[in-house]
Every structure is written in structure tokens, then in C-alpha cells.
Amino acid sequence: MKKRKGIVSGAVLLAAVVAMGALFYFYPVWKSAGLLAENLDFLHCTYELEAELDRSKLPEETGKQLEMLAKLTGTHESALDRLTVKGGIWDDKIHAVIYTEGAEEPFAEFYLSNDTDVISVTTTYESIRKHLTQRYKVLYHLMPKQKEPVYMTMEQAEQLFGISLENARDFALPLQDSGFSRGRYFALLWGMSREKGNRGELFSLETEHVRVYFRASGEPETFGELGITIQNPGELVSGKERILEKLGIHIPDDGLRALRSLSLTISSREAEEIVVPENFVSQGMVEVISGIREWIQENFLEEEEDGIPALL
Fold it and tell me: Using CA atoms, how far apart are residues 224 and 202, in angstroms rounded to an integer?
């Protein structure tokens, strides 16, 4: 009887040790899951997206539009193949500022919402004005500098630039949920590798094509962060990347095929409410500038053998 009691006592002690070990191992994961659930909200966040385009896989019309924008802004076409988009999300509103490779000044700026979509006239117009007035001095007085920030609707922008902005209008991050519960975060984190650093706990998982990480910090600054990098997204086989499915990430097949790589970082830091601007340019001004643009295209831009616009 005493031997049996000893075996039972030993089993209980072993179970207690295992339980304590599991507690010490999983508690930091549970704590980080709580920080992420409380702080990382995909509908109230900042983001940075980097994408490398595969020009050969783009629709022909999109390729022509990029070519024309490159000519008008003086941007090398290859710089348009690597884009960085920075901005924020607040409820149904998205703010997106687009940079070409190596550029310090933005190439374009959008505000998208359920009610209206607007584009910064000043940002894009100044890029075009600087290039064309430096190249063709006769245009200096026809294209005055725009000092005050002015915006227009997507429809006005399409008329002004003579291109379709359907892809910009449909821009959205590939996340289907607003955020996850503590339990769901815990289920994601416990199987990831974990590192402790100055900026909190870092959890990461890497497959052949995808790397995903979560960063959770409680001090000195409380925030949550999600990072996703996809290499050769066109080679992804639907249903094979379970981590993307668990995150509720869906990228249309057409979008995947046109990308060489995709990197996305979402953070709760510096997230603030987005107000869509209302200082729109008049329709009359749009028609005037649109007429100038058509005149420039017809009389000043010609395709040479090297692909550089030439003055006729």
C-alpha cells in the first residue's frame, strides 16, 4: 500500500512540475497574446507596404499607364516597379502615400472611404510640373506652382491625367478581420519561435515563401505589430500557406501573379483618426489642366528610340 501511495505521490509531483514548467513557458506567450488583442486593431492602425511589380505580368493597359506617368514625372520606369505605400486606417477610411524606389518626395497621395475617394492634386501635379518645366521652359508660365494642398475626386483625376485609377480605388490591405481575440493570438503564437528584445517579445514563423512575425510590447511603449513578407507570391499554391489562412489574409490571384515580392507591416503605434480633405479643386480648373495635358501630349511628347520624351 505504501509503495502504491509513493507512486501516486510521485505522479502528482511530476504532474505539478510539468504544469509549472508549462506555466513558465506559456505565460509569456499568453501575456503577449493579451497585449496584441488589446492593442493591435487592423481597423485603427498605421501600415507600410512594399511591393515589387513584375512588369511582364501586368495587364497591357496598366503597363501603358505606368509608362505615361514615368514620362510626365521624369521618373525612371524601373523605379515604378518598386513602390512603397505608407499610411493609416481608421474605420472605413484609408490614407495612402506612395513613394517610388529611392524617392524622398511622395509620388501620389490618396484618401479612400466608403463615401468618397480623393487624390492629392498638389503631390502629383508638382511632380509633373517640376519635370516638364525643367525640360520645356515654355511650359513654366502654363503650369504655375501649386503651394496650397488641393484635392480632387478620383473621377476628376482620371479626367485630368487621362488614365484609369480603378486599381487605386480598390486599394485595401489583404486582412479580412479587424483583429483577433487573446485565445486566437495565443493559438498563433505558441508554435512560433520567440525572442525577447528591447522592443518587446518577437514571435516569428518562416516557410518557403512566407515570413510572418508579431511584436508585442508592454513597456516602455505599449503597442502591437504584425509583419508579413511574401517572396515570389505568384508561386503560392492556394491552400498551402496555412499561416496566411489563419491570419485571414487573402490576395486575389491576379494580384499575386503581378508581384515579385510583397512586404507589409501593421502597427498600433501613432494610429490616429483620418479626416478626408474637402478642399477640392473646381471642375473648371480640372478641365483647363486636362486641356493643357492633352496639348502637351500631342505637341511636346514624342517617343524616341530610347523611349525619352522629346520636344518636337
Answer: 10
Beta-carbon contacts of 89 under 8 Å, excluding residues fewer than 6 positions away, are 42, 43, 44, 45, 46, 47, 95, 173, 271, 274
Instruction: Measure the CA–CA gap between 109 and 123, rounded to whole angstroms.
Output: 7
Using alpha carbons only, give the angle 289, 167, 285 rounded to the nearest 5 degrees.
15
Mode of pairing for the β-strands spanning 44-53 and 210-217: unpaired
Res. 38: pLDDT tops 70: yes
Distance of alpha carbon 162 from alpha carbon 244, whole angstroms: 37
Confidence at 95, pLDDT banded by 50, 70, 90: very high
Please give the model's pTM, rounded to 2 decimal places.
0.78
Contact at 8 Å (CB) between 96 and 87?
A: yes
Per the CB < 8 A criterion, the answer to whether 10 and 18 are in contact is no
Question: How many angstroms separate the CA atoms of 77 and 52, rounded?
Answer: 13
Distance from C-alpha of 278 to C-alpha of 186, rounded to nearest angstrom = 43
Which cell numbers in the block locate residue 6? Answer: 509513493
As a whole number of angstroms, the distance between CA 177 and CA 89 comes to: 13
DSSP 67-136: HHHHHHHT--GGGGGEEEEEEEEETTEEEEEEEETT-SS-SEEEEE-SS-EEEEHHHHHHHHHHHHHHH-
What average pLDDT score do residues 122-148 get? Answer: 75
Closest CA relative to residue 107, chosen from 73, 135, 58, 156: 73
Average confidence score pLDDT of the chain:
75
